[in-house]
Write a structure and sequence with these properties.
25% of the residues lie in helices and 26% in strands. The chain has helices at 5-8, 43-49, 52-59, 90-104, 119-130, 189-199, 250-258; strands spanning 16-19, 30-36, 62-66, 69-70, 76-77, 107-117, 137-141, 160-165, 204-212, 215-221, 229-234, 244-245, 248-249. Keywords: Carbohydrate metabolism, Hydrolase, Polysaccharide degradation, Secreted, Signal, Xylan degradation.
Length: 263
């Protein structure tokens, strides 16, 4: 996809993969699930390893895998990797990508969702802030939720499901204080979720709603426009995508959350 240098870090194009469900019908509109790779990952590895394409065939949605840009170490990243934007306009990339997907396929524009792991989880939080009028709900996994330079001012409440391991040493569950790292402080997961509950106007919670083995669930409810905040904590979980939440595959749990919400 052609792109301006500010969108492509000096390059002139950005790319993404699209998986069209097996029973795609151009006469019917289909939801879209955007899946962001983590730092050092790729669109291809995410498509192959997350199970969302197989789920798309089963649940009849279009799966989209955007490709990040290379950092100084030649690893793929998103600009949400830290508290800086690296002079990359990810918002413009996302808008252009969504415009093209909507043109190329029959898309239900009221049901576009985003998920991702690690740096890709951070991007899920980023689009919730920056593209709330186009993204119906988000589900970051082990995301790095650095404060955005421009702040987070969504134009509507955004339903959010977050999944995180308690023993994550890459993106610590309890955050990284400014005392420890003044340049790259990271909020604790529960603080970040509390901020989203406030943005969404939730008046109840957090309350326990789920417990199964090593997984416990919290939720904030009674939110504006039913924009519930949910969180699964994986006790002892590290920096990875859990295979299961309770008795269901993680990608199925995410999709079950998504399909409850639309713009």
């Amino acid at each position: 996809m052609p792109a301006q240098p500010a969108v492509a870090r000096g390059q002139n194009y950005r790319t993404y993969l699209v998986h069209v469900p097996a029973l795609y019908d151009p006469k019917k509109s289909f939801p879209v699930v955007i899946v962001f790779h983590g730092h050092g990952g790729s669109a291809e590895s995410t498509e192959q390893g997350t199970g969302f394409s197989q789920l798309a065939d089963k649940e009849h949605f279009i799966a989209v895998y955007p490709q990040g840009l290379r950092d100084d170490n030649q690893l793929f990243m998103w600009a949400s990797i830290g508290p800086f934007d690296y002079n990359i306009d990810e918002t413009a990339f996302m808008n252009t990508m969504l415009d093209k997907i909507t043109k190329d396929f029959c898309v239900d524009t009221q049901r576009v969702y985003a998920t991702g792991f690690s740096n890709g989880g951070g991007m899920s939080g980023f689009v919730a802030c920056q593209l709330s009028t186009r993204i119906a709900a988000v589900a970051p996994i082990a995301g790095n939720y650095y404060p955005l330079q421009a702040g987070c001012y969504p134009k509507r409440p955004v339903p959010l499901l977050e999944i995180h391991g308690s023993n994550d040493s890459t993106v610590p569950y309890n955050g990284i204080s400014a005392t420890v790292n003044p340049q790259w402080p990271l909020p604790p997961v529960l603080d970040w979720l509390h901020d989203w509950a406030q943005r969404n106007g939730c008046t109840k919670g957090p309350e326990n709603f789920f417990h199964d083995g090593e997984t416990s669930g919290l939720r904030w409810t009674n939110c504006r426009q039913d924009a519930t905040i949910m969180h699964y904590r994986i006790e002892g979980g590290e920096h990875s995508i859990p295979a299961m939440i309770g008795n269901q595959p993680t990608q199925q749990v995410i999709w079950n959350f998504f399909k409850l919400h639309s713009l």
